[in-house]
Amino acid sequence: MKECPNCHAEMGADVNFCTNCGTDLRQVAVSEEKPAPAALEPKAAPVQEAEVKAEGQADSQASGQAENVLSTYWQWLLHAWKKPAETVAAEKWYGLTTLILEDLFFILAVLAGMNNLARSLEISYPSFLSIITELKSSFSSYVIISVVLGQVVVLAINYFAMKRFAKSEFDFVGYLNRYAHLSAYSLILNVLFWLFALTGSLGLQGIVLNMTAVVGFLALIYVLLEEKAEKIDQMQFALVISIIVSIVVMIVVKMFFKEFAYEIASIADQLVNSLLGSHSY
After folding, report:
1. What are the angstrom distances between the C-alpha of 137 and each of 109, 112, 143, 161?
2. How far apart are the first and last CA of the chain?
3. What are the E-state strand segments in the chain?
C-alpha cells in the first residue's frame, strides 16, 4: 500500500502515479496493509435479565387472563340478573362457582346468627358457657353438611328426572349452568342474608330467607318446564318432582338436625331446672 505525499490518497503497491493528483509514486515506500477493524458484536443481554423479562411477561399475561376470566364471569352474572330465563353460553365452571358462592354466604349468615344467639345466651347464662360453646360447634358442622348435601341431593333428583322422563340433552354441568343462571338472584339474596345476620336484623333475615327459597324453587320448576316430558303431562311432571324434592329436603333436615334438637332440649331442661331450683330457695 502506498500513500501519496501530496494528497495522502492511498494507492495500491503497484501504482506508480497517483490517480488523484498525478504525483510520482515510484520513490514512495510500500507500507503494510492495515487490517480492517473487526466489527463490534452486539453484547448479549445477561441471562438473568432475559429471565426476569420473560417472567415479567408471563406474569403480565397470567394477570391479563385472570382479569379477562373474571370479567367474562361477571358479564354472565349480570346477564343472569337482567334476563335469567334467556339462554346464554357459559363456561363449564360458571354454574358450580355460583352455587358454591351462594352456599358459602348462606352458611356464613347462619353461623353469624348462631354466634349472635350464643353471645346472648353466654351473657344471660354464664354458668352454661361450656354447653353453649359445644352446642355452637355442633350446629356449625350440621349447617355445613345439611346445606351442601341438601343442595346436591335436590339437584341430582331434578337432573335424574329430566334425563328419565324428558330425555334432556343437558349433561350435569350444563344443567348446573342453566339452574344457576335461573337462580342467580339467590346469590344477591344470600349476600343480603349474611349482612343482615351480622347486624342482627331478624325480621329482614326472615324475609330474605323466604325469597331465597322461592327463587330456588322457581328455578327448579322452570328448568323442568323447559324440557318436554314424554311419558307424563308437563305440569304433572313438575308437580311430582316438586313433591319428591320437598320430601327429600325434609328427610335431610330431620336426619342432620335430630341430634342437634336433642342437645337444644337438653340445654333447655337444664336451664329450666336451674331456674326452678333458684326460685325454690
Report:
1. 15, 12, 10, 37
2. 131
3. 2-3, 10-11
Torsion angles phi and psi, residue 227, rounded to 5:
-90, 145
What's the grid cell of residue 163?
Answer: 334425563
**111 is written with which cell numbers?**
353461623
Closest of 253, 219, 247 to residue 110, by C-alpha: 253
CB atoms within 10 A of CB 88: 13
- Backbone φ, ψ for residue 39 (5° rounding): -65, 135
The per-residue pLDDT for range 181-237, each reduced to its tens digit, is 999 999 999 999 999 988 888 888 889 989 998 898 888 888 877 776 666 676 777
Letter for the amino acid at 235? M
99: closest CA among 151, 32, 43? 151
- Residue 10: φ, ψ to 5°: -90, 130
Closest CA to 272 of 71, 128, 139: 128
Phi, psi (rounded to 5 degrees) for 11: -125, 165
Give which of 102, 206, 192, 84 is closest to 154, Cα–Cα: 102
CA distance 114 to 191: 17
Query: Which is nearest to 24 in space by CA: 6, 39, 46, 43?
Result: 6
HSE-CB at 127 with a 13 A cutoff on CA atoms is 5
Count Cβ neighbours within 10 Å for each residue of 182-191 and write b for 16 or more, e otherwise.
bbbbbbbbbb
